[in-house]
Amino acid sequence: MKTTNIRRSRLAAYLAAPLAALLLLSTLEGADDKDKKPAAKPAAKAPAANTKAPATGATKGATPATGATPAGRGPAAGAAPATGRGTAAPATGRGAAPEASRAGTNPGAGRAGAPGTPAGRGNSVGGREQPRGVNSVRTANGNEFSRRADGRPRDVHVAGRGMDVHHGLAGGRRVSVERADHSRIVAERGRGFVDHPYAFRGHEYAHRTYVVNGRVYDRFYGRYPYRGVYLDVYAPVAYYPVGFYGWAYNPWVAPVPYAWVGWAGAPWYAYYGPYFAPYPVYANASLWLTDYLISQSLIASYQAQVAAQAAASQPPPPLPAGQVALTPDVKQAIADEVRRQVALENAEAQANTQNADFNGQSSGIARMLADGMPHTFVVGTNLDLTDASGQECAMSEGDVLQLATPPPPTATAANLIVMASKGGVECRRSSLVSVNLPDLQDMQNHMRETIDEGLGNLQAHKGGLPTPPPSAMAMVQPASFSVGAPPPDQTAATQINQQLQDADKAEQETLAEAPGQAPLAPIAPPAAPAGPPPTLSAGMSTDQVIGILGQPKNIVDLGAKKIYVYLDLKVTFQDGKVSNIE
């Protein structure tokens, strides 16, 4: 049954709120959507540019039960490349954008040495800037590598093979390769993907085959140029009925208690117990989807750590030091963003009924960077970022970032505030970190994909979830861009494993090209403070406070009196000195 055949009278109660949100997303710049009232009647149809087209028979049914396994995880949970990976932004030859360097930085930014110059020193590898305390070398063959201050390798770029290898600050390794036909492989231990590009109606798409702990699944992405880099935007292969999005957007009739089956005895749940606790009851779908999103992220994070420890013949990973619980404010910020993403997909679903093409500019972070609103992101893969002081810190799946201020129009990275992290080597809460735009797009993809899977469970009303109305239970509307797409790659697992082996040899060969430079004489990082992190106290200067907490979310300027507002803290200065902390 086509969604266009559903009677408008049956959908009126469910269309109003999402359509109001659509107006918010497209026309009300700078407004906060959670304060808006539902529209009294449907708005005009969504722009044709924000839609999709007929599909390869894929449907959106219920995903496997949540909790104990990574089934139902979207690709970002398993293998989406991270900062330093060198492949999230496709390199030259993809689409019509200007040539862009790997990893989304400006072409040739900070290149070390010159071609043919042995062991040229600099601060970038494969076009990716290296954080403070990391030094890089360029060999006579054009290969590059960098080491951290303790001598451990960080990045290796093998020019002749189109290969980039990133060693994570918290452990683990990601291998990224772009081949001559512009297909890509991203490989980690136990997970990865193979990506094949293709064209449909003059637009470029990517069909990825993921392998995550033995589970194989595929996803589609629309690829488009943005600010000199290429972004891959998640493109649902099919949509739910428009009435279903209305039901998912609006509050439920009454709050619903829900038991997450299998969590109580799950190792990941005990491991992250200090960090995450689900809501006891759910007043709407966005709150339920928030816990679904966080839980699936943490499951993947835990499994990745266990795999890394097992590979090193070590016991399960120790509990991260300094875990701080996700606060209600942070979870609400995630829920608000989830709600906006549901409204966005509703817009796509309506346009899809008109057989319009997928519009990555409207569906991806380009819209989010231009609407003047703060946006919340849940990290979907391990990342190594750089904070405001130039120091490297890690983020892992389930951490939370917020974009408060959009980057300048020509920037290929954005500054975000750390809303929640799990301690250890991870970036401190309230610190300001720089995120490459391809990584930011991966985070939105992660949210969209996981929301879609959660919506499948909601439509199937599993385990005591509310039953959607009949109008929300119609068949899904497929999208046409998958017609003629390359099929899922049946050899993906073999290619991923082979790439990991090839990287072992390539790394050793590259590091051996400049033996006189290894280990590198590192740039000494600032001395790490001994003992626990410093605490705030009366009399501190603004610089001292920023050094501890990072840049504030907002500043209230009252002349001699200034109030620095952080996520869960307010610091008052009188004549430049701390006078009150609350």
Description:
The protein is globular, with a radius of gyration of 24 Å. It has helices at residues 8-27, 75-78, 242-249, 267-271, 285-311, 328-352, 360-363, 365-370, 437-459, 492-512, 542-549, and strands spanning 120-122, 124-125, 128-129, 135-138, 144-147, 153-158, 163-167, 173-178, 184-188, 191-200, 203-212, 215-226, 229-234, 238-239, 251-257, 281-284, 375-378, 383-387, 392-395, 400-403, 413-420, 432-436, 477-478, 554-558, 561-565, 570-574, 577-581. An 11-stranded antiparallel beta sheet has the order 1-4-5-6-7-8-9-10-11-12-13, sandwiched between helices. Helix 1 (8-27) packs across helix 3, helix 1 (8-27) crosses helix 6 and helix 5 crosses helix 9. Residues 1-122 and 517-533 have low confidence and may be disordered. A hairpin with a 2-residue loop joins strand 26 and strand 27 (577-581). The chain is built from 11 helices and 27 strands. The chain is an alpha+beta fold and 582 residues long.
